[in-house]
Amino acid sequence: MTIQSSPKTSAVSTSQGVLPPAGFGVYESSAAGSSASFVHSEPDLNDNEETELYSVSWNQDSSCFAAGTSRGFRIYNCDRFKETFRRDLKSGGFKIVEMLFRCNILALVGSKTNSQYPPNKVVIWDDHQSRCIGEFSFRSEVRAVKLRRDRVVIVVEHKIYVYNFMDLKLLHQIETLANPRGLCCLSHHLNTSVLACPGLRRGQVRVEHFGLNMTKFINAHDSQIASMTLTMDGLLLATASIRGTLIRIFNTMDGTRLQEVRRGVDRADIYNIALSPNVQWLAVSSDKGTVHIFSLKVRVVGEDPSTDCTAVKGSALYHQGSSDSLDGLVSPNTGSNPSSSLSFLKGVLPKYFSSEWSFAQFHLPECTQFTTAFGSQNTVIIVGMDGSFYRCSFDPVNGGVMVQQEYIRFLKTETRPR
């Protein structure tokens, strides 16, 4: 079955015409039933020296991460740290590997050296059945793929395509500014369907509330957006620009800026922004070699998100008016971000002196790109493009320098991200 979906998309196809429903099984793998394309292999430290690391990406609840390599992909469990399994591809590696929670469905995009899956094709892979269940082909290189239980979102340089996961039908096309980083983020509550991406103006973020049939444009920064993330229900948005000095938190319902924190004074390349599940903390990694933790003054009214593959209850905030919702978005926290001793002169001195600075910090090698996420019990997990994994803890009351609890070199590589 082949579907012509848009002028920019050459073809969309599935092996049986219809994808499985959103209630996928638990993500697992076995040697039995492997296709000719993939070869299941046990971890072998001897082959690490021949394997290049192309990408790392967290699943939606940060309980796992996927590594795209020059030979295929690998999945790692974060608590306890363990390589769950790997798939090796004879024709080359993958530059993008996107998981769907801990389910058996993956979205894969090949590297330029992959003879079977080029970088302009997205493969929806069912690892439980060890087969491809859908493919998307584009005329330009795919920059990112995002999954939720009912949607497949594919990002190319100037456009974002939103497909229904059940039958791969194209639902939405969104025009963006040039987006080489593939910036796009999704909510993951089943009853709150929110997408955030760059707008058509510099520093602008476009927020699509699909369930409410509402589009909100937020002028987040004066410079181009470098990184963004949403809470699980899509009600809060955190952004950073290419200047990399300030991180801002917005209410996506009405675009109100709720908080602003300062990473530093010097320009920095922000690698990623992470929000803790309870929305008490925000983490930022950059090329300055420091992971910063900030205390948030915002919270989301509602139940904590579930992290399994079942239906998730949404936030009560969506059942309120946007004006009422702001009352529930500001709350006290256990820790407080430090500010300048001259902050009482706010409005007189430059903005720098009234800034909120990071609450806790962890130092890393500056030459490596790192991505962060929150673990359990006030811990932060960090994965580097040098094949390193860190787990560190922070004091939720006093902050300061974080304590390293674990370090693992899961892949021996000297390569840098592509």
TrEMBL record:
<dbReference type="InterPro" id="IPR048720">
    <property type="entry name" value="PROPPIN"/>
</dbReference>
<keyword id="KW-0677">Repeat</keyword>
<dbReference type="InterPro" id="IPR036322">
    <property type="entry name" value="WD40_repeat_dom_sf"/>
</dbReference>
<feature type="compositionally biased region" description="Polar residues">
    <location>
        <begin position="1"/>
        <end position="17"/>
    </location>
</feature>
<comment type="similarity">
    <text>Belongs to the WD repeat PROPPIN family.</text>
</comment>
<keyword id="KW-0853">WD repeat</keyword>
<dbReference type="InterPro" id="IPR015943">
    <property type="entry name" value="WD40/YVTN_repeat-like_dom_sf"/>
</dbReference>
<dbReference type="GO" id="GO:0034045">
    <property type="term" value="C:phagophore assembly site membrane"/>
</dbReference>
<feature type="region of interest" description="Disordered">
    <location>
        <begin position="1"/>
        <end position="20"/>
    </location>
</feature>
<protein>
    <submittedName>
        <fullName>Autophagy-related protein 18c</fullName>
    </submittedName>
</protein>
<dbReference type="InterPro" id="IPR001680">
    <property type="entry name" value="WD40_rpt"/>
</dbReference>
<dbReference type="Pfam" id="PF21032">
    <property type="entry name" value="PROPPIN"/>
</dbReference>
